[in-house]
Amino acid sequence: MKHHIPFRLSALAAFVASASPLSAAPGSLDPGFNGTGVIIRDFTGSEDLRAVAVLPDGKIIAAGTTDASGHDDILVVRYNPNGTLDTSFSTDGIEIINLLNTSNETVKAMAIQPDGKIVVVGHTDANTGVNLDMFAVRLNANGGLDTTFGFSGKYTINPTPSADDEASGVAILPDGKS
Questions:
Q1: 73-101 tens-digit pLDDT
Q2: I need a surface site. Which of 14, 90, 131, 168 has the fewest CB within 10 A?
Q3: What is the SS3 assignment for 13?
Q4: 38: burial class by Cβ within 10 Å (0-12, 13-18, 19+)?
Q5: Residue 131: Cβ within 10 Å count
Q6: Are 167 and 123 in contact (CB under 8 A)?
Q7: What is the DSSP letter of 15?
Q8: Strand order in 105-112's β-sheet?
Q9: Separation of CA 18 from chain center
Q10: Of all helices (H) and strands (E), which one includes residue 6?
């Protein structure tokens, strides 16, 4: 069972705020970020953000999991440097991805390619329902699934069918591939 922990989200937001190119002293919350330097947002479920990246233009990408649909789905959000949702990303700043209608996904890591595409990895119970399989999804810079990657932007792999398989990190190679 997943628990919503506001402190964890606020600590993540505080870290992101201190990393953004706004006007606070180093190590201080920046009041130019959401008015307080902190964002606590409820996406209508329990959320667990696990990865964050600040883009060269100061926009912030965060990835994790939400159970708004009744099972755990992949959540990717993009914020403007001032802390507002970037509505040019996936029409409302929020992209929710499920691998199958009843599967549970857990995000473990995220990386941004030089072309702005977003790679998110973790594990899912989509294929077996019993053992965990690794997944990778890739989004275009605008938040839509990159249909040139895997199967319509999604890819799962089960290298050891009788055991749990989990992707815990992702890196982008010098040629831009992940």
A1: 999 999 999 999 999 999 999 999 988 87
A2: 168
A3: helix
A4: buried
A5: 15
A6: yes
A7: H
A8: 105-112, 118-124, 133-139, 154-157
A9: 19
A10: helix 6-19
> What integer pLDDT is reported at residue 6 of this predicted model?
39
What's the distance, CA 121 to chain centroid? 9
Question: In terms of Cα–Cα distance, which of 100, 35, 49, 108 is closest to 77?
Answer: 49
What is the chain's length? 178
pLDDT tens profile 107-121: 999 999 999 999 999
Q: Is the model's pLDDT at 176 over the cut of 60?
A: yes
Instruction: Please list the residues that pair with 157 across neighbouring strands.
Output: 134
Q: Which residue carries 């977003």 as its tokens?
A: 118
Strands of 47-54's sheet in order across: 47-54, 60-66, 73-79, 94-97
Whole-prediction pTM:
0.82
